[in-house]
Amino acid sequence: MFLAHVSLHLGLTGSFAAQEPPLSRVRRDRRTSPYTCPYMLDTPQAVILAAGRSTRMASRRSKLLQQLDGRALIHLVLDAVEAAGFSPVVVVPSSDRSVSAEIGERAVCVPQQQPLGSGDALRSVPEELRTQGVVLVVNGDLPLLRPGTIGQLCAERERAAASCALLTATLEEPSGWGRVVRDREGKVEKILEERDLEPAQTALKECNAGVYAFWGAALWPLLSRLTTRNAQGEYYLTELVELMYPRVTAILSDDLGEVQGVNDREQLALASQLLRHRTIRRLMQHGVTIEDPDTTFITSDVAVGPDTVIHPMTTLGRGVRVGVDCEIGPGARLQGMQVGDRVRIGGSVLEDSRIGDDVEIGEYVRIRPGTILASSVRVGTHAEIKNSSVGDRSRISHFCSVLDSDVGEDVNIGAGVVTCNYDGSTKFRTGIGAGAFIGSDAILVAPVNIGAGAYVAAGSVITADVSPGALAVARQRQHEVAGWVERQRAAAHSGRDGS
Q1: pLDDT of amino acid 43
Q2: CA 84 remoteness from chain centre
Q3: Contact criterion met (CB below 8 Å) for 166 and 150
Q4: What pLDDT score does 497 carry?
Q5: Res 193 pLDDT > 80
Q6: CATH hierarchy code of domain 2-253
Q7: Which residue of the set 382, 398, 479, 493 is catalytic?
Q8: pLDDT by residue (tens digit) across 468-485?
Q9: Would you call 398 a catalytic residue per the annotation?
Q10: Is the pLDDT of residue 495 over 50?
């Protein structure tokens, strides 16, 4: 089911989507990527149009701030543009500043003051930011766009010596898309938005994907010639194609996922699914076993070593690194984790921590930020560890809560042990020396230190340091009252007879 789904939506047999420009055309220096062509070295510029109203998203936030792959959608577009070698990057958001705040210093933000159309958005770029060389213009709602596709689009513009090269796609159901109109010789003549189509033109199936490679010297002067003679009364960026005709070329994408824009919640879910399957396919090609791709959620930045098995219903979020020959899940959730080799993790939640080699973690465990588990550590079920370091070969049994603690090597922590770290106003740490034995249901009240090799008796409440090699017993002496049960029963029976 998964492989058929991916083949259908991602065009895995397509000709150009999976290819890269020949490496012989690439100059290697700090400003290039594997997709960078030599002419791009002359200050190539990218402009991302990000001022859409996001009406169909039915959200108070811009569609470019919706979460995809564990972060705001706009960052995925920036990733593709930067990986293709474009710098500087200019983003044109709306005037509400929310997108600008998300981007920060990653790009130059030039807000569009009034929503007058995509052509007006491009006109918002000031003179000092207008390069005369290559100018890449990308719609900001294309999170699956690949750097290789951008490189091929620019290469086609250079080959044809064109003023504009655009990315197109042929769709069987083109409703909602702008259509590409070609002349009798097959050259791109213009782009018409759907509202502006004549009845005979509605049958056109080649659509505009919203990615353009312009030659800046031809682009910028033509912006003043844009008009509002269209159904929406806006300045369309697509009118530039007609103004530049016949010096216009195009490449046709057969990867429909790559050109799918995100305008509503359904399209957001589809983009998430396509990106997830792209990531899972990459991992499987590199030796990772993913038992059920349809129920496994992995962000695109995750790295997993070969011969690792990922069971169903597992989520690997951003920043996760997993070593070789591991077993994760079912039902595990990892975020920001560094995991060594030969690690076994059950259906547990792990966040922003480090795990050494040969560690075993049972079911329903929570590893909270700042935790370091050294090699060969064992953690039972229903345990919690937070902001603690645990030494080699130490064992933390089920139903434990180890908080703000420093645990040495070869320590045994019995079931139900709690390190009490908080007195209501301040957090304190607990230290447990190498080789110590902490009996079940013991409570260690921080700040406290248990010496190396010491024993703490089960059920003890430890409020003072324990010396190395000592036995600490902190509980009431057992007291037995002989015959108590029979006397209680007799008294109860006598009371009922008296009533």
Answers
A1: 62
A2: 20
A3: no
A4: 67
A5: yes
A6: 3.90.550.10
A7: 398
A8: 999 999 998 888 999 999
A9: yes
A10: yes
What are the tens digits of pLDDT across the range 352-376?
999 999 999 999 999 999 999 999 9
* Mean pLDDT taken over the chain: 90
Length of the chain: 499
- Round to whole Å and give the CA distance between 316 and 312: 12
Higher pLDDT residue, 22 or 290? 290
| Amino acid present at 289 | T
Residues 6+ apart with CB under 8 A from 314: 296, 297, 328, 329, 330, 331, 332, 333, 334
Q: Quick count: other Cβ atoms within 10 Å of Cβ 160?
A: 15
Q: Is residue 413 within 8 Å of 402, Cβ to Cβ?
A: yes
The structural architecture, per CATH, of the domain 279-472 is 3 Solenoid (2.160)
Q: Where are the domains of the chain?
A: 2-253, 279-472
Selection from 362, 355, 350 nearest residue 376 by Cα: 355
Instruction: Find residue 443's DSSP bridge partners.
Output: 418, 461
Which residue carries 């304190």 as its tokens? 428
Burial of 487 (0-12, 13-18, 19+ CB in 10 A): exposed
Does pLDDT of 30 surpass 90?
no
Give the CA angle between residues 304, 256, 248 to the nearest 5°: 120
* Whole-structure pTM value: 0.84
Give 405-434 pLDDT, tens digit per residue: 999 999 999 999 999 999 999 999 999 999
Report pLDDT digits (tens) over 297-310: 999 999 999 999 99
How far is residue 334's CA from residue 349's CA, in Å, rounded to a whole number? 6
Could you give the CA distance from residue 58 to residue 263 in angstroms, rounded to a whole number? 10
Confidence bin at 31 (pLDDT 50/70/90): very low
**Residue whose pair of structure tokens reads 């103004």 in the numeric block:** 243
In the chain, pLDDT over 70 holds for what percent of residues?
91
